[in-house]
Design the sequence.
């Protein structure tokens, strides 16, 4: 797969934005910096207000205090880029929509939750739709053939044949460390890794402090990010993070401080934990409900730990955790397109399922995530089988499909009714 010949596809968020503009007065598109929010929204906006424009920012902030309605004037839909700097936009737009504005009036983008969210007097229910954007999936970046569709699997369509891109371990390691940042797609070598590295430095030095206007120690930010990277894919609580910090660093940080840093990282969409699937399968208290730790893109963990593609290939256990993080990113993006969600099952017996995919009509699927190879694939099949056995007779519907999602492989196939699917042939 020639990394410098990739041509990425339209973003999945494009169609979501079009749909939601047709049904709601305003749409909020939020997500990590550099993931492509502004570019996506510019394509459907007819006028734009760039709040971060250096030569206009001060003027816009003053005008927002005196007459915010002037900032809302322009052809519709009007894009307010980085709206969180003026939380008053929320109530002003809600008022406009309430008083005959109609559908598709405004698009708001934000790379952080407003630090002054208490100034917002109304939730926006019925006026605002929301879209979460993340860095690009392999389908969007052109690194997946898209011959396996989650939508088709949920609808019960039989798989006949499907070819993947045939990604090698070396190539997958590169894709993980490069990340899904739009500006990196098609770049090769070290040049492709710089974006994630600079993103992390920006978070450490300034972005996290802007989350809630609280100055934070860059060294502590770096240490907490490294701890989260070491614990990604696990259900580590704050106490576990503190223990990891005490093992790997000299000075201690109390749990309250750690929690405040983690919350700030969530507000700027760096950390995006995965919630737990809690069906009525075992006795009350047997299913673990702690969220699973993930970054919005696996390249963040690689950058903060100073890990390159070669490091992953030489440590397959670590590689497995990083690939799982990439797969969760893609599955989240795909399930957004299906109006669904992704969760994880984990109980106190140690039985777990890496991803449980839900659709709005109550269907679900079980997915195990493995690097590849007969041994790991067989392990994934056994895990799914154990969970399916537990589900039977518990009043819970059976899954629409079962899948082992792999990093490598040239084609998809079935093994014991479980679809073995390389991620490089998957799409929504």
Sequence:
């Amino acid at each position: 797969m020639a990394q410098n010949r990739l041509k990425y596809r339209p973003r999945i968020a494009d169609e979501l934005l079009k749909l939601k503009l047709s049904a709601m007065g305003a749409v909020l598109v939020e997500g990590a910096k550099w993931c492509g929010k502004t570019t996506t929204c510019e394509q459907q906006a007819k006028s734009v207000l760039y709040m971060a424009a250096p030569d206009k920012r001060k003027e816009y902030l003053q005008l927002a205090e005196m007459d915010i309605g002037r900032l809302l004037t322009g052809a519709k839909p009007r894009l307010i880029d980085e709206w969180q700097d003026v939380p008053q936009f929320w109530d002003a737009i809600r008022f406009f929509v309430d008083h005959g504005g109609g559908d598709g009036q405004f698009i708001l983008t934000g790379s952080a939750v407003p630090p002054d969210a208490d100034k917002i007097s109304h939730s926006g229910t019925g006026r605002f739709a929301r879209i979460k954007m993340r860095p690009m999936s392999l389908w969007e970046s052109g690194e997946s053939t898209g011959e396996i569709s989650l939508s088709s699997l949920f609808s019960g369509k039989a798989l006949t044949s499907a070819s993947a891109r045939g990604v090698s371990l070396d190539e997958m390691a590169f894709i993980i460390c490069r990340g899904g940042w739009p500006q990196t797609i098609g770049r090769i070598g070290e040049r492709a890794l710089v974006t994630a590295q600079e993103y992390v430095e920006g978070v450490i030095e300034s972005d996290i402090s802007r989350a809630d206007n609280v100055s934070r120690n860059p060294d502590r930010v770096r240490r907490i990010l490294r701890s989260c990277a070491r614990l990604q894919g696990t259900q580590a609580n704050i106490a576990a993070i503190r223990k990891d910090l005490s093992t790997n660093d000299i000075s201690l940080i109390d749990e309250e401080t750690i929690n405040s840093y983690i919350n700030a990282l969530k507000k700027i969409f760096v950390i995006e934990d995965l919630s737990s699937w809690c069906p009525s399968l075992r006795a009350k208290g047997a299913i673990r409900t702690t969220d699973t730790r993930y970054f919005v893109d696996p390249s963040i963990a690689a950058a903060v730990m100073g890990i390159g593609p070669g490091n992953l290939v030489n440590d397959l256990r670590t590689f497995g955790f990083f690939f799982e993080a990439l797969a969760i990113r893609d599955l989240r993006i795909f399930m957004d397109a299906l109006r669904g969600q992704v969760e994880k099952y984990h109980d106190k017996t140690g039985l777990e399922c890496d991803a449980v995919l839900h659709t709005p009509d109550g269907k679900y699927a079980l997915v195990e995530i493995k690097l590849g190879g007969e041994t790991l694939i067989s392990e994934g099949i056994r895990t799914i089988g154990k969970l399916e056995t537990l589900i039977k007779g518990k009043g819970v519907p059976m899954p629409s499909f079962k899948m082992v999602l792999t990093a490598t492989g040239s084609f998809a196939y079935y093994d014991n009714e479980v679809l073995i699917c390389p991620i490089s042939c998957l799409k929504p």
Observations:
- The first helix runs from residue 12 to 21.
- The chain has two domains: 3-133, 148-427.
- The CA atoms of residues 374 and 380 lie 10 Å apart.
